[in-house]
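Case study.
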Amino acid sequence: MKTLRQLSVGQVAKRSGVAVSALHFYETKGLIKSWRNAGNQRRYPREVLRRVAVIKVAQRLGVPLADIANAFQGLPEARTPTAADWNKISDIWRAQLDQRINGLIKLRDQLDGCIGCGCLSLKVCPLRNPEDKLAEQGTGARLLSGS
Amino acid sequence: MKTLRQLSVGQVAKRSGVAVSALHFYETKGLIKSWRNAGNQRRYPREVLRRVAVIKVAQRLGVPLADIANAFQGLPEARTPTAADWNKISDIWRAQLDQRINGLIKLRDQLDGCIGCGCLSLKVCPLRNPEDKLAEQGTGARLLSGS
DNA sequence: GTAATACCTCAACTTAACTTGAGGTCAAGC
DNA sequence: GCTTGACCTCAAGTTAAGTTGAGGTATTAC
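After joint prediction, the assembly is written out as follows.
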């Protein structure tokens, strides 16, 4: 297959640096779309490469796939997304990243000398009491939630 | 049980704000230790409260439990850890946090205007190329070149 | 002395983001 | 025209950090 206008899953994998299994997975999550050829094999538009690129960058930013899928909902169906379309999304993620960075900086500033001091009590220490809300957050498996 | 010198798992849970099941879990991971009373129930030294506090703070820093357990290996067995002992650990985590913050800041700086541009290729874009492999080739950053 | 808690163990379930494998089809090269 | 490699689906496994539940014992309160 030499056509550049449509890509097989293997070609997308190679060009994007993402495993075929991951591409399948992204498709089940609605992050990318494909049509099938006569033999039931996936075919992608070239545009999928940008989508995958954006997905990978978003992941570096710490955005979960579900949120990425959600952001992609706002993308136009009819036409290929423009730079402006993508920027609308990245502005949001950039703001989130800013927040995360600021939170970590605050945490770092609080950390100095505090972990070994006597104040790590649930009620008194700012390190234990993030937002002054006392263990109000629902429990559950959360990977790196605060980061 | 009114003794303050030793705590039941429920008391530790209440005072630390951590679920009993989580304390059990931490114990299986070697993060905390207990002995048993006549009726096979766990008993903890008061000191466990600090350990749990440190665990929770470390998690906010983004340190995985396995790493926390590892760091705790360096703690003295014979005596109760001192502020200096804890600081030795927190210094390491603080450095890691610094690194993480710096990485995110760099990422943020690269993000601006880049996600919507034409450069999200695996080879050219710094956002796709975390390790900065291109720098070695003297290609130079071309963030907006392809758009 | 008995009912209500608190505790015990062990197995299975949860979420995220995938990977691995089994069993089978399709396409491409020679 | 046949073999190799790419692709298909679907189920199950993986890691982290726990939670939930079942079935049973201990402790506490009245």
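Observations recorded in class. The helical segments of chain B are 9-16, 20-28, 48-61, 65-73, 83-111, 133-137. Strands of chain B lie at 6-7, 35-36, 42-45. We will return to this complex in the next lecture.
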